[in-house]
């Protein structure tokens, strides 16, 4: 196997391990990964669109739509009167019930993320982000050809 292939395979494994952590952690909290990312975004951002959640977490629109519809039915989130910048999508936000659900889960995850970030340090995280961005730009250039 060529060296580049070994390196990219290892990188893929590491990226998948990070996502696996979030999936397993969500399960330990009694929710699934897609519920976690939805609650996380709504709690940390205050309000956002389904599309915003999908773009940040690379989740399918259908999956997030299903989660949001269940959360709306259960009184966890509500559709805001406000729309996004272009006016085409309504913003979602947590209800009081939703905040009570999300707060302990997301606060616990934020504390965990802060601990991990502290272990790595600001410079390591900046370098990781910078290099991942460079890799994504390089791959994206091949999609546009």
Automatic annotation (TrEMBL):
InterPro entries: HTH_MarR-typ (IPR000835), WH-like_DNA-bd_sf (IPR036388), WH_DNA-bd_sf (IPR036390). One of its GO terms (molecular function) is DNA-binding transcription factor activity. It holds the Pfam family MarR_2. Residues 24-125 form the HTH marR-type domain. This is Transcriptional regulator, MarR family. It comes from Pediococcus damnosus.
């Amino acid at each position: 196997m060529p060296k580049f292939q070994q390196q990219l395979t290892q990188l893929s494994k590491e990226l998948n391990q990070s996502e696996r952590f979030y999936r397993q952690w969500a399960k330990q909290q009694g929710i699934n990964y897609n519920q976690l990312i939805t609650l996380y975004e709504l709690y940390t951002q205050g309000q956002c669109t389904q599309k915003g959640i999908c773009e940040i977490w690379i989740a399918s629109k259908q999956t997030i739509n299903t989660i949001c519809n269940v959360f709306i039915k259960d009184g966890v989130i509500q559709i805001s009167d406000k729309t996004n910048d272009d006016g085409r999508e309504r913003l979602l936000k947590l209800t009081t019930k939703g905040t009570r659900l999300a707060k302990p889960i997301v606060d616990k995850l934020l504390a965990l993320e802060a601990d991990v970030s502290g272990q790595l340090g600001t410079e390591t995280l900046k370098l990781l982000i910078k290099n991942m961005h460079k890799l994504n730009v390089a791959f994206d250039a091949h999609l546009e050809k």
